[in-house]
Amino acid sequence: MTTTQTYEEVKATANRALRRFSEEPLPHFIGGEWVKSISQSVLENVSPIDGSLIGVVASGDEQDIEAAVKSSSAAFPEWANMPGQERKKILHKVADLIVERASEIAAVETADTGQPIRFMSSAAMRGAENFRFFADAAPGSADGKSMPTKDHLNYSIRQPIGPVGVITPWNTPFMLSTWKIAPALAAGCTVVHKPAEWSPCSAAILTEIAFEAGVPSGVFNLVNGVGEQTGRALTESEGIKAVAFVGESRTGSLIQAQGAPTLKRVHFELGGKNPVLVFDDANLERALDAVIFMIFSLNGERCTSSSRLLVQSSIHDEFVARLEERVRALRVGNPLDPDVEIGPLIHPLHCEKVRSYLATAVSEGATVIQAASEFSSSSNYVNPALFVGADETMRISKEEIFGPVLTVIPFETEKQAIEIANNVEFGLAGYIWTGDTGRAHRLARDLEVGMVWVNSQNVRHLPTPFGGSKKSGVGRDGGDYSFDFYMETKNIAVAYDTHTIATLGDQR
Predict the structure, then answer these.
(1) Which of 21, 102, 240, 312 is deepest in the core (most CB within 10 A)?
(2) Among the options 66, 248, 269, 301, which is catalytic?
């Protein structure tokens, strides 16, 4: 989705919106109040566009987390017992306010993350859609099943689990925050949100919106800070009953270990090395569009990106030639420009990581085809690239790079395609392009992933399960699957008084 604003209008919107973040430190939000860190600690928030300082951000520690958890725990009974229809009204108001501030949210997030405004514009609106979907589901969130037997009526109900921790990533922070927080609130849980330290601004806007919409004090808390300190304190807190996390697989492992002593429920949306399989009987024009979109949109910084292209040998050279032409034409530049398709990566450390794979590709024997742009190698920009002539044994074919680079691997047969596709430790998503219906179903069945799209890019349908297998995640989001995580299911058995009860110790 391309914004209707001009470059100058977007810049003006971003400058106005960001001014507040430069004037004073961005605080936490605990118990309905904006507060500084108890320790007074702060961290710098630097724009990936030009390295300028956006502002400083309060950096929380165990004391701030425990204050937020205490507030969240105190607010939980009233929010949990609020009728679902009332929560529905509040969450719809959240969605309305997101729509009202969508241009501001998109501009701030673009400046904060480096993601092109053309994508952030739609991300803000998707956040509103998430809240509307789960708002409508709130009245039925407690619904269970009726399971009668001859002598008993068994029925189940669902009840909110309690205060939950939500830890969100830096790549599309606003949309992904709503994807976790909306169902938690709809279920009747209270929330302590720890946003990514590299892109904290839009989280503050969402917090403002929630409070303005009528979410009661203590129900929605925000604590900024770094993962190693603030995040760890959240995952280790005894008062937090579950943690929903989106991010790297390695961090997910740490969170699981940190939450183990308190038997904390976890939901992880983790990394991916997602294959897209293109067969010679596919609609190659549509496949080409989808391949390009799913790796080069959002700067390649998305967990569901199709970062491995497996293309049948009979069409390999033709498809790669067309792909190269399109990649060289990608528009790299300032992400606030609505015409730009590739912006800067989030942080110099991440940029260095992605660039290192360019050298890795060459050392492993692949050919690097890279678009040219005017941006210097000292900035956070990585020009979009293809790694051609790769095979499944290379690091570039196995490791999550999380940038605008695509590894191309040829295959001969359906069997070989599946073997290559599954030969990684990740299993988030897969994409299949073929005109053969039987093959589509076979491959969708045999791919070791949590989600498959056939003859399509990634298109989310909110009721469907979203999540991965292997090192790509634990659990599922979406529709009732989200409520299964944020709620406990309780079975209640009521006797008809017709069953026989065994008699022990009867002295009659």
Answers:
(1) 240
(2) 269
* Cα–Cα dist 491/450, whole Å: 29
- 285 included as an active-site residue: no
Among residues 66, 197, 201, 303, the one annotated as catalytic is 303
383 and 249 in a common domain: no
Paired residues of 368 in beta bridges:
387
* pLDDT tens, position by position, 323-338: 999 999 999 999 999 9
Strands 242-246 and 220-222: unpaired
The domain in which residue 416 lies consists of 275-454
Q: Which pTM value belongs to this model?
A: 0.96
The Cα 223–Cα 34 span in angstroms is 10
Residues 89, 184, single domain; the answer is yes
Q: Tokens at residue 152, please?
A: 């008993």
| Phi–psi pair at 54, nearest 5 degrees | -70, -40
Angle at 207 between CA 204 and CA 209, to 5 degrees: 110
What's the token pair of residue 146? 């009726």
DSSP annotation string for 364-385: TTPEEEE---S--TTSS----E
Q: Is 269 known to be catalytic?
A: yes
As a whole number of angstroms, the distance between CA 104 and CA 20 comes to: 12
Count of domains forming the chain:
2
Could you tell me the two tokens for 440? Answer: 């589509």
Q: What is the pLDDT of residues 341-389, one digit of tens each?
A: 999 999 999 999 999 999 999 999 999 999 877 776 568 999 999 999 9
